[in-house]
Specification:
20% strand; 5-stranded mixed β-sheet; Glutaredoxin; 5 helices; globular; 39% helix; alpha/beta; 174 residues
Length: 174
């Protein structure tokens, strides 16, 4: 029996890997769905004298996008966010995460700024509360400021048209 223990352990590890490989890493569950957006009070990226809070997300459906000037995947996603900002009516809020203020501002100046408000979070205060593990990550909040959806990774056109936009339109009519 003792000689089968390594084989049993190997089989269990193999089973765990097999199950893990069948899951879509972009669809990780979050305990924050259907909970209020976390409380915070952080400076605006554009103006350190302006404090932004979770109240800025209330009374409108919001698309809250975590980004950084250092984030390669954010460069891939950014043209889609610019298109959303130009052609849609959703409140698009940015969280500039783990960045230096001047680098975040320069990056947006070069790439274009799709955001209405930009929360400056250089020390991950809000990101930790949101359970952010990497950029980009995007949250959809309803009019009451409740998190209704979390998207991990860059938003593709397909993600926008098939998932995010229909959800936003539904939440706007609720």
């Amino acid at each position: 029996m003792k000689r089968f223990i390594p084989l049993i352990i190997f089989a269990l590890i193999g089973l765990a890997f097999a199950i893990g490989l069948t899951r879509d890493p972009r669809k990780l569950d979050t305990v924050l769905i259907e909970t209020p957006f976390p409380q915070f009070s952080l400076q605006s990226l554009e103006d350190p004298q302006v404090l932004l809070t979770e109240a800025n997300l209330k009374n409108q459906v919001s698309l809250v996008n975590v980004f950084g000037s250092w984030c390669i995947a954010c460069n891939v996603e950014h043209p889609i966010l610019m298109d959303i900002a130009q052609n849609e009516t959703v409140n698009l809020v940015g969280i500039n995460w783990r960045d230096k203020r001047d680098k975040g501002q320069d990056w947006l100046e070069r790439q274009g700024n799709p955001y209405g408000d930009i929360i400056f979070d250089p020390e991950s205060i809000l990101a930790i509360k949101l359970g952010v593990v990497g950029a980009p990550e995007t949250f959809v909040t309803d009019k009451s400021g409740t998190i209704r959806y979390k998207h991990i990774g860059p938003i593709s056109r397909e993600d926008w048209t098939q998932t995010l936009k229909p959800l936003i339109l539904q939440l706007e009519t609720d």
